[in-house]
Amino acid sequence: MSTLVVWDERLLRYDMGDHPLDPVRVELTMDLARRLGVLDRPGVTIEPAEPATDAMLETVHDPDYIAVVKAASTGRRIGIMGLGTTDNPTFVGMHDASALITGATRRAAEAVWTGASARAVSISGGLHHAMPDRASGFCVYNDPAVAIKRVLELGAQRVAYVDIDVHHGDGVQEVFWDDPRVLTVSLHESPRTLFPGTGFPDETGGPGAPGSAVNVALPPGTDDRAWLRAFHAVVPGVLRAFQPQLLFTQCGADTYRHDPLANLQLTVDGQRAAYLALRDLADEVADGKWVASGGGGYALVECVPRAWTHLMAVMTGEALDGATPTPAEWRDLAARRRPGAPVPQTMSDGGDAGYDAWVPGESPDAVDRTIMATRRAAYPFFGLDPHDPRD
């Protein structure tokens, strides 16, 4: 199994300063993966990123918006198109840093589609909130959308995008809202309680692509078992019906139980189980063609490095045992980078990654009601029975 990792340290330049999206989370991820031998496995290739050109960015973003991003990147005070806000402060070099991340993710998708690599990961990517004409939610350019556009340019007719970030993948859904070639599936905390306020079950695609969007809006407090029940009750069914030629996954780690910006209750064990499920689905429905990006995640030491190291382990071969100790050298680096932050000793939280299969009508709790709402809204577009757990 060949896996491309698009990475070099220039990707750490996407740095908004004193801001939740701290690049230290990516630095610590790559250090942990390297020390645990994940990046040295047979078949793994590490390739430096190349920036997306304006023409590449314009497959998703308006030229006027790109021009404003460039102007803001020089240090000018800019307060339009979503820039200059608390969420999206401007910084010198912003365009170059954002274009580099976009180029990395685009290259990952291109490599998998052309067969140069079976799987590929752009761990610094996953900036799924950026809109064609504005920045949003810490995201300047929408690298997953640009990457999927590239695969479509190369001839793909069915691409599935599965987003497991705690926030709705609104930007990617917006870009492909009316494109029947792209299925967007997002599992996220309910828009009633969390940014961006979209991602309700009845958001199912535009007039030209009915059924192209599937949204699972989970209640605050959803834990590993409940999250996995919802995932398995919805995602395999729609992917099997859609039969994508490539699976793109946005793997934000902010579903974590101690994430400071959200309210789900997953452990790294539950997140690891999600990556294993995505791998199995990629093998089953997309001939193994799997591209993954990072995304959100604000427990910078406690969660993100472990979660994404698990992701890269699953993508490059055998999953890591949760009992694996974190290396002492990594713990020292984490303590230096984020003094006072909890530094985990192993790759597990002792979480429960099992789940009970969804069965309709059995004393439904809030998660079961969410499952049923999504299935009722989306499943008929795929010729599936919302009430039949076999679908």
TrEMBL record:
Keywords: Acetoin catabolism. InterPro entries: AcuC, HDACs, His_deacetylse_dom, His_deacetylse_dom_sf, Ureohydrolase_dom_sf. The keyword Transport does not apply. It comes from Dactylosporangium vinaceum. Pathway: Ketone degradation; acetoin degradation. Belongs to the histone deacetylase family. Pfam families: Hist_deacetyl (PF00850). Residues 19-314 form the Histone deacetylase domain. PANTHER family: HISTONE DEACETYLASE HDAC1, HISTONE DEACETYLASE HDAC1-RELATED. This is Acetoin utilization protein AcuC.
